Amino acid sequence: MSSIATLGSHCALQVLKGAKDEGFKTILVCEKKREKLYRRFHFIDEFIVVDSFAEVMDQRCSNILKENNAIIVPHGTLIAQMSSAEIESIKTPIFGNKWILRWESDRNMKEKLMVESKLKIPRSLSSPSEINGLVIAKRHGAAGGKGYFLATNEEEYMKKRDKLIEDGIIKGDSDLYLQEYALGVSAYLQYFYSELSGELEFFGVDRRYESDIDGLGRIPAQEQIDIELIPSFNVIGNSPLVLRESLLEEVYAMGERFVEAAKRLVPPGMTGPFCLEGVYDENAKFTTFEFSARIVAGTNLYVSGSPYSSLIYDEPMSMGRRIAREVKNANSKNSLSKIVT
Ligand code: AMP
């Protein structure tokens, strides 16, 4: 029986709790500064203490993980802190399809996969001179919304871009991706695709609370104008949401199209958890502005199961536990190669 490992951040607690519940040994690759926090949780069996997460590629880490027959569950921190090439070079088996993580990090590849999935997406702009209406400027990679900003014309864009350069957050235009701002109610749709059963499971929905854009509504319009704030979209936490039941059919259809497109473009495809991120407009039509091709932190809400996972499983099923269950099922069918890369 293998063990399950992850990096100490993002959704590590949920992933390792789920792994423990499914009977696995659990391993945390933990930065020294976070060790005290994670030692509080007794379902973590072994710690590999590092100075930085990049050490997960080193011989010492690889050897310990190999001795434990470990599988790494990738999450947002891995993507935020390591390049695609570095992730692909990790010798320890990674749960899911590690090749698709590059498609998440690279904005152009990301757009291609969303188009291939026939998702409705906001128009992207190739130059600030094309700005003609409300746009959002986003940084590449899993920046978690930090340093993003809104603009309605080129001049405003330049002003805000220059401030980010001054603050050392970006180097120039090439660090930013411009996309039309999609208006509506945000929803982050969490799925799990099982390569073993060929079934797509809809696991839950969350909304993000982002600072300081989500705090602005508490300030009257006059003060908003007076303080000349450039709001950012830095994720602070998540809150739950359930959808009108009539929306579920399209939720499954979008997820299935994504799984099929990923099979064509990035073999072996979208194995395991993923998330389609976007907004519902006034006609309840969904525009997808992003996807995550791995577990998202919004699933941390549902450690004891979600309103949707409870319809599929008669036991508390978190996304972390679902991942571990897939590894267990693959082990018993001798099909581990189908679910790790
Ligand atoms: P992302 O890194 O793309 O997930 O974006 C971070 C946050 O920026 C999201 O959670 C949204 O609040 C916001 N956002 C990103 N893209 C768009 C868009 N095209 N329209 C509206 N809001 C967006």
Q: Rg, please?
A: 20 Å
Average the pLDDT over all residues and give the rounded result.
Answer: 95
Bound molecules: adenosine monophosphate
Largest sheet: 5 strands, antiparallel
CATH class of the largest domain: Alpha Beta
> According to CATH, what is the topology of the largest domain?
D-amino Acid Aminotransferase, Chain A, domain 1
Strand order of the largest sheet: 11-10-9-12-13
Low-confidence stretches: none
Helical percentage: 25-40%
Strand content: 15-25%
CATH superfamily of the largest domain: ATP-grasp fold, B domain
What is the helix/strand order?
EHEHEHEHHHHEEEHEEEHEHEEHHH
Structural class: alpha+beta
- Overall tally of structural domains: 3
Shape: globular
Named CATH architecture of the largest domain: 2-Layer Sandwich
What gap, in angstroms, lies between the N and C termini?
18 Å
Helix count from the secondary structure assignment: 13
Oligomer: single chain
- Number-wise, the strands total 13
Q: Could you walk me through the main structural features you see in this protein, from its secondary elements to its overall organization?
A:
The protein has 341 residues and is α+β, with helices and mostly antiparallel strands. The chain has 3 domains: 3-94, Rossmann fold (3-Layer(aba) Sandwich); 104-119 and 184-338, ATP-grasp fold, B domain (D-amino Acid Aminotransferase, Chain A, domain 1, 2-Layer Sandwich), CATH 3.30.470; 124-180, 2-Layer Sandwich (Dna Ligase, domain 1). The protein is built from 13 helices and 13 strands. It has helices at residues 12-21, 35-38, 59-67, 76-81, 84-89, 100-105, 107-116, 154-166, 221-227, 248-265, 309-312, 319-332, 336-339, and strands spanning 3-7, 25-31, 46-50, 70-72, 124-125, 135-139, 149-151, 176-180, 185-193, 200-212, 233-241, 272-280, 286-292. The strands form 3 sheets. Strands 11-10-9-12-13 form a 5-stranded antiparallel beta sheet. Strand 9 (185-193) and strand 10 form a beta hairpin. Helix 1 (12-21) crosses helix 12 (319-332). The relative contact order is 0.16. Bound molecules: adenosine monophosphate. The site of adenosine monophosphate (AMP) has 15 residues, from strand 6, strand 10 and strand 13.
